[in-house]
TrEMBL record:
Residues 8-174 form the Exonuclease domain. This is Exonuclease domain-containing protein. Keywords: Exonuclease, Hydrolase, Nuclease. GO terms for molecular function: exonuclease activity. It comes from Bacteroides gallinaceum. It comes from the Bacteria. Signal peptide: none annotated.
C-alpha cells in the first residue's frame, strides 16, 4: 500500500556506541525520505562518535573504532541532517523510545536546538508489538515474506522498517488508517513532553513528571513547591532535551516566556 502523506516522512535508524540515551553516541545513521508524490531519497553515513565503541556494541552492528576513525563527527554533519529532515514527519523501529531521543541529544550537543514538537512520530515497532509482538527480523519475515539480510546495519533496518509499515497497512485495513496522524497516535505509548519520556502530558494536557517521587504530579506545581528538584535534575544524569523542556516550563510559569 502506498503511504498517504501530506508531509514527507523520514524513516531512519541509528547504530550507536550503546543504549544509554544520555551518554552514548551515533556511529551510523541512515534515513529514507518518502515524499507525498511517492519519490524516495535515501542517505547513509558513518559517524565518528569521538569515543570508544564498546566490543559488546561492535558485536551487534559490526562497526569498530577504526571503521569510523576518518569519518565526520556528528557536529560536522548535523546541519546537513537537520536540513534533510526539516518539515518531515519521523518514522522508525523502536524510534520513539531510543532513536529519536538519541538523535535529539546529538543535535543539542552540536548546538542545534531543532524543534520537533510539531512533527508526527510513527513507531513501527509499537504497531507491530500491539498486533503481533515480534522483532524486526521476524516482522520482515511475517509481513514481507523475506529474510532480513544484514540485520543491525542501519541501511538494511531502515529499508525493512519502511517495507514493514506498508505491509502493515495492507494487512490491517480495518485497524490501521493510511494517515500519519493516526499512525503516530497509534504507535505512541504516552504523550511525551520530552523525548526520553521523563515528562509527559496528562489527560488534561498538563505536563507531569513520569518518574521519581513526584511521578504523576504537575511539573509546574512541583517547581513551585520544591525548587531544589529543578536543580537536582539540571545537575543530574538526564538528557539535555529533558533539561531544556523543564527549563522552558519553569520560564513559562514565571512569566518570562509565553
Amino acid at each position: 500500500m502506498k503511504l498517504n502523506l501530506k508531509n514527507p516522512l523520514v524513516f531512519f535508524d541509528l547504530e550507536t556506541t550503546g543504549t544509554n540515551i544520555n551518554t552514548d553516541r551515533i556511529v551510523e545513521i541512515c534515513y529514507l525520505k518518502v515524499f507525498p508524490n511517492g519519490n524516495e531519497v535515501s542517505k547513509s553515513m558513518r559517524i565518528n562518535p569521538e569515543m570508544h565503541i564498546p566490543e559488546a556494541s561492535t558485536a551487534i552492528h559490526g562497526i569498530h573504532d577504526e571503521d569510523v576513525a576518518d569519518c565526520p563527527t556528528f557536529k560536522q554533519v548535523a546541519k546537513e541532517i537537520a536540513k534533510d529532515i526539516e518539515g518531515a514527519d519521523i518514522a522508525g523501529f523502536n524510534s520513539n523510545r531510543f532513536d529519536v531521543p538519541v538523535l535529539v541529544e546529538e543535535f543539542l550537543r552540536a548546538g542545534i536546538d531543532i524543534d520537533l514538537t510539531k512533527r508526527k512520530f510513527i513507531d513501527v515497532q509499537v504497531i507491530y508489538h500491539k498486533l503481533e509482538q515480534r522483532t524486526l527480523s521476524a516482522a520482515y519475515k511475517f509481513y514481507c515474506g523475506k529474510n532480513l539480510e544484514d540485520a543491525h546495519t542501519a541501511e538494511a533496518d531502515t529499508k525493512a522498517t519502511y517495507e514493514v509499515l506498508k505491509a502493515q497497512l495492507d494487512r490491517y485495513p480495518d485497524v490501521l488508517q493510511n494517515d500519519v496522524n493516526f499512525l503516530s497516535e497509534y504507535s505512541s505509548f504516552t504523550r511525551n513532553a520530552d523525548f526520553a519520556g521523563r515528562i509527559i502530558y496528562d489527560d488534561k494536557g498538563v505536563e507531569v513528571f513520569n518518574f521519581g517521587k513526584y511521578k504523576g504530579m504537575s511539573v509546574a506545581e512541583v517547581l513551585k513547591r520544591d525548587m531544589g528538584y529543578y536543580g537536582w535534575i539540571m545537575n543530574g544524569d538526564f538528557t539535555l532535551n529533558t533539561k531544556n523542556v523543564l527549563t522552558k516550563i519553569r520560564l513559562r510559569e514565571s512569566g518570562m516566556i509565553k
